[in-house]
Design a protein that fits this description.
Elements: H1 3-14, H2 39-53, H3 64-81, H4 88-103, H5 109-113, E1 117-123, E2 128-132, E3 135-138, H6 146-158, E4 170-174, E5 180-184, E6 194-198, H7 207-213, H8 218-229, E7 234-238, H9 244-252, E8 261-265, E9 277-281, H10 295-302, E10 309-312, H11 319-327, E11 335-339, H12 343-355, H13 363-373, E12 376-382, E13 388-400, E14 403-412, E15 428-430, H14 438-443
Parallel strand pairs: 7-11, 7-12, 8-9, 8-10, 10-11
Antiparallel strand pairs: 1-2, 1-6, 2-3, 4-5, 5-6, 12-13, 13-14, 14-15
């Protein structure tokens, strides 16, 4: 049977129909599961396109623009040879989806291009969710089968030298634009491969954006800028999806441009604007179980790189001990993030992770290390309306007996409630307390405006 006959048969078998008066949408429509009527058509054209182009798809001398032009022109030729009657919207849809599959990441490519989509979640071949405006939606898109999902995952991870297979069924990776990728495949993923992509803006958010979003206030932005310029050690805490990395990026932007900054991450996401930035990324072990480079290894190595600042994307293991030692041995002004539910929990997690290093230290000694190293804890929360807000800014004051003492300098007023649409109308307010580290800031030539700490009434009294 010829290609044209196969396509015609596919059309008859699947009863292909399409809208006559509008192009196919790539928006975020809520999805009602239906079988893709273009499945066999796309498979046939896709295979013919591969046969036509062959090794040209992997020609290292061809630029991305040249490759796209070659694929799209060949795609139109192959579609033209089918002699299968397709409406203009049908042809546009099939051509776009096949081009996305070859040049990009298949059915999720439209959502990667959509600036309003912040997260993409693939829960198997036929179930794709996105996050937009802080809300989850199931969308009208699907992969052909499990093999199609696996090919897409492999395309993502191999570009940065990572691998995923039955022996290593979990992987963290990133896209060229810095978006964070996590993939889990069978046998760990029981119902099919899982893919989660946390997108990052090509134009990173600035402090003015976070003020506009309500994440912080202008007064708090001025305060944090002073703290960074004054070389305080800062810990940013929060739950998953609370916006810690975005806040870390903005807080790091306050670092003076004449300083040497070393960033350390699992997957390189930070987008600092300073000129003297050295980006380090951890590496998993290879197929023989060798070659792993951990965050802890990178923190240790960074101390030999003459850093003015060390910025760690996330501390989640024994690297906490090396980070504390760096902060306590002259590397002031370092910034890192940690998963936690409150500022107090963040400090407790640091203690626990230090114990993971296997050192035989009494708990009081560990807490003294934490107290000596950390100056400020910024805690961020994701609200039920999808917004991300800084809810606590606490100073690490010292020790009282065996307990680390902290003081809240700014606290979110939850008691202000919500508006009719469910959006929080609360704001971050000063508690009226002045920080004890003002002398440290003064030694760096940084002064704080007295008006920053004027007490603001809280709705709950």
């Amino acid at each position: 049977m010829s290609l044209a006959d196969r396509l015609a048969q596919a059309r008859r078998d699947k009863s292909i129909t399409g809208p006559e008066d509008e192009a196919p949408s790539t928006g975020s429509r809520v999805f009602e599961p239906t079988e893709d009527p273009y499945r066999d058509l796309k498979l046939s054209v896709h295979q013919s396109l591969i046969d036509s182009l062959g090794p040209k798809l992997y020609d290292a001398n061809m630029t991305q623009v040249e490759l796209e032009q070659r694929v799209r022109s060949t795609l139109q030729e192959v579609l033209g040879e089918t002699n299968t009657p397709l409406t203009v919207p049908e042809r546009a849809r099939v051509a776009q989806e096949i081009a996305d599959d070859i040049l990009g990441y298949g059915p999720i490519e439209p959502f990667l291009r959509d600036p309003d989509v912040t997260e993409i979640m693939v829960n198997g071949p036929s179930s794709i969710y996105i996050e937009s405006s802080g809300r989850l939606h199931r969308v009208d898109a699907s992969f052909t089968n499990e093999a199609h999902v696996r090919r897409t995952i492999d395309k993502i991870v191999t570009r940065i030298g990572r691998r995923v297979d039955e022996a290593s069924p979990m992987v963290d990776a990133r896209l060229p634009d810095g978006s964070r990728v996590n993939a889990v495949i069978p046998p760990l993923a029981v119902d099919g491969s899982l893919l989660t992509i946390r997108k990052f803006s090509a134009d990173p958010y600035r402090v003015s954006d976070l003020v506009a979003f309500g994440t912080l206030t202008p007064a708090v932005a001025e305060f944090l800028s002073a703290c960074v310029r004054g070389r305080l050690n800062i810990l940013i805490s929060g739950g998953t999806g609370a916006g810690k990395t975005t806040t870390l990026n903005v807080v790091s932007s306050f670092i003076p441009d004449n300083e040497r900054i070393v960033t350390i991450e699992d997957a390189a996401e930070l987008q600092l604007s300073q000129h003297h930035v050295l980006r380090l990324e951890s590496r998993p072990s290879n197929i023989e179980g060798r070659g792993e480079v951990t965050i802890r290894d990178l923190v240790r190595n960074s101390l030999r790189m003459r850093p003015d600042r060390i910025v760690v994307g996330e501390v989640r293991d024994a690297a906490a001990l090396d980070m504390l030692q760096a902060m306590n041995t002259g590397h002031d002004g370092s910034i890192c993030t940690v998963h936690a539910n409150s500022p107090r929990d963040a400090l407790a997690r640091i203690e626990t992770m230090v114990l993971m290093a296997g050192v035989d230290l009494p708990m009081r000694a560990i807490r003294e290390q934490v107290t000596s190293a950390m100056d400020l804890v910024i805690h961020q929360t994701r609200f039920k309306d999808g917004s991300r807000r800084i809810t606590h800014i606490s100073e690490v004051v010292g020790m009282e007996g065996e307990i680390i003492t902290t003081e809240e300098l700014f606290r979110f007023d939850f008691d202000m409630g919500y508006d009719d649409e469910g959006h929080s109308i609360g704001k971050l307010k000063s508690t009226g307390l002045r920080p004890h580290f003002e002398d440290k800031l003064s030694a760096e030539g940084v002064t704080l405006d007295n008006n920053l700490f004027a007490f603001e009434n809280f709705a709950g009294g």
